[in-house]
Design goal:
heterodimer; A: mainly alpha; 67% helix
Chain lengths: 166, 430
Amino acid sequence: MEGEPSSDASRPKTRIPLQIEEYLAGIAIGILGLITFANVVVRYLTNFSFAFTEEFSIFLMVFMALVGGSSVMAKQGHLNIRYLVDKLPTRARQGTLIVATMLTALTFLLLAVFGTRMAWDEYRFEVTSPGLGLPTWIYTMWLPFLSLAIFGRAVGVLIRMWRRQG
Amino acid sequence: MNYAYLMFGCFFLLMFGGVPIAAALGLSGTLAIALAQLGIMAVPTNVYAGIAKYPLLAIPMFVLAGAIFDKAGVAGRLLRFTEAIVGRGRGALAAITILVAMIIGGISGSGPACTAAVGGVMLNAMLRAGYPPGFAASVTAAAGSTDILIPPSVAFIVYSVLVPSATVPALFVGGIIPGLLACVMLIIPAVFLSRHYNFGGSESGEPRPKFWGSFKDAAWALAAPVLILGGLRTGWFTPTEAAVMAVVFGLFVGFAIYRSLTLRALFELLVESAETSAVILVVVGLASVFAWACSTLGIVDPIAEGLVNLGGGHPLGVMFILMVFLVIVGMFLDGISIFLIFCPLFVPVAQTFEWDLVWFGVLMTYNVALGQFTPPMAVNLMVSCRMSGAKMEDTVRWDIWLLFFMFLGLLLMIFFPEIVLWLPEATGFM
């Protein structure tokens, strides 16, 4: 529910265009809406239900969350509590924020590492999904991949902080 | 138990150090899981499974529906419609702000988003009419906070995912009367203060907008909550489907009726809504690591027991402790994080006393709503202060009255659970 509407003011200049993630996230939410709407229409007009696509919709939502999480990371738009940090003197504040961003980057790096192992295990053991019968690693591999993207965006934030200071 | 202290300590340290809440939850959870050797692969599994839940799909759809109606220009039309009913004069704009927020709350599901939508129209109107910025910002923030009580509400969707026995439709309908109650409790001090200090007295001379014209214009927006709740009541739609119908309806209104949307604006709305939802869902995903560590470390039962004992085993005493606690955390944390962290701890307490879980969920949400405009760390107040140029310090003397009256509403709900439970029972949702 929370999450302020993002403003253009927070839009940083990045070497890798932010539009990549923004467009992918926007397209994902668009497809999600279309699938769900089509599902309602088809169910009421015919007796046919393609509820089995639920599995794909859920995957799309995870994809949207992580890819959107990546562009939001670059804009430093993830919910955080700046109240105490902003009360610190300038140098201490800058230092704290750099450490905080490093820890954020570490979180997503860990997620990328362990996520790779998770997807690899599912590939090795040939786990398939209950709905569509697809191998599950084609879904779960996006968790480590996109976590790595979020990690990259966090590193980008660090570099920009560093430059501004130096 | 030591790992539990470490995990909570680490979380609070990271959180107050400015680390995003999602990362603070994920990192402290991961640390506890690694040290207690609970199996590190639980980390990625919980993040993925935490987000990959069908009921959560309603969140991006309701966020999108709210954004579409907002961009289509609903707020301005609702302003004219409510102005036609309420009229002008001292305090009228303050009351209108709360009423407009209430109706927009029936379309959008998020407090800060509602505050921004309402503030975009009402703050300027109030400032032009001579209301002090601190007062205008307080009223707008408080009005926006009722959004999460009035269906559709992202908070209720998350609560229902955590507490499956409280269904989304039951919570949605259960939130209607408390939402209206909150609005009444806000209108009373807002109008009283305006009369006392003569805010907006200068514009009484201006003519009212015509009722029927403004009603015809606003009717399309007023129909959206009816469509959502009606669709749920008749069982036509699941909450996710109802959200999509609201999106389609919003597109129809924006493109065909108001003709205020363009394809380009639509794409920007998609990106913006996807990002807003992403912020919520990333917290949901990483909080599941934290919640999993909590339950696997076996600290849920001792904490629940401790809370029961702390209140002397008396239901009212325990309820009071929980509510005070929630108001305090509400000042620092957003509603979604509060639910994700504290529902697993509090729901067992509620079960001990056999409290109704729909009632309890609505009470928790009401507390979160209070927290959204309790300074100094209030999400809604930050939005409205930024939009009006008011300083947070200037809002306190007004805000405190709004908080006090809305808090009285909370007491009413605690002593008379029927306020919450009557409507869902009468309409057959429970």
